């Protein structure tokens, strides 16, 4: 028997390595203002708080002067480019595709809570052939406040009609961890993305998603 009857996942850095596509879209937006081109490895450091915060954090880190109009131009260019090619460079992390299939086959209900734009989220899942696996997938701009606000995660749980105590959240960042803590649900961290930087109790660090078929039950019993 699976440890949980349902699991909600973060997307970027948890299920997929989308940094190359995010960087390409971001560079399209930055080009509108004559801002410098960004390397995907650099962009990856700032992923997790949604596109508006991503743009502002990078501008602040690089010391690039900007106003609201420039940020709006960059965001518009980013979104247009991302919607045009949302997953051409994106890849799954190791065993993720097969493990999602195994969880689904075992009867585990699956959802997505991501700070990615909602429309882009749907296109990414469709392009990667994942849209049929998830009962609900809610992006940052489809809720009043996105992660780390627990309302974002609760909105996904509500859309799936989940019962408290029967599900957990899986992510790769401290933002994901804080979201789960604020929502009062168990949190598991993946070993890739930003997962190595997130401190979790013994039993809550995954080696792969398939661990959740049994691993979560043992961890819950030890808490």
TrEMBL record:
Record InterPro entries: HAD-like_hydrolase_sf, HAD-like_sf, HAD-SF_hydro_IA, HAD_2, HAD_sf, PGP-like_dom2
Entry's EC annotation: 3.1.3.18
Record Pfam families: HAD_2 (PF13419)
Keywords: Hydrolase
An annotated GO BP: DNA repair
Enzyme class at the top of the EC tree: hydrolase
The family this protein is said to belong to: Belongs to the HAD-like hydrolase superfamily. CbbY/CbbZ/Gph/YieH family.
UniProt protein name: phosphoglycolate phosphatase
Lineage: Bacteria, Pseudomonadati, Pseudomonadota, Alphaproteobacteria, Rhodobacterales
């Amino acid at each position: 028997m699976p440890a949980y009857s349902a699991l909600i996942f973060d997307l970027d850095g948890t299920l997929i390595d989308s940094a190359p596509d995010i960087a390409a879209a971001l560079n399209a937006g930055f080009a509108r203002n004559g801002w410098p081109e960004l390397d995907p490895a650099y962009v990856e450091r700032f992923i997790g708080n949604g596109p508006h915060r991503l743009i502002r954090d990078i501008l602040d880190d690089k010391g690039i002067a900007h106003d609201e109009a420039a940020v709006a131009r960059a965001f518009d260019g980013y979104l247009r480019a991302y919607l045009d090619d949302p997953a051409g460079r994106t890849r799954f992390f190791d065993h993720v595709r097969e493990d999602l299939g195994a969880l689904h086959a075992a009867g585990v209900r699956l959802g997505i809570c991501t700070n990615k734009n909602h429309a882009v989220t749907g296109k990414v899942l469709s392009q990667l052939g994942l849209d049929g696996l998830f009962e609900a997938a809610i992006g940052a701009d489809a809720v009043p406040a996105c992660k780390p606000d627990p309302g974002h995660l609760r909105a996904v749980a509500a859309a799936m009609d989940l019962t408290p105590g029967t599900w957990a959240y899986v992510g790769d960042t401290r933002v994901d961890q804080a979201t789960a803590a604020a929502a009062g649900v168990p949190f598991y961290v993946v070993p890739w993305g930003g997962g190595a930087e997130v401190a979790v109790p013994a039993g809550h660090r995954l080696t792969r998603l398939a661990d959740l078929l049994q691993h979560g039950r043992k961890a819950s019993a030890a808490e």
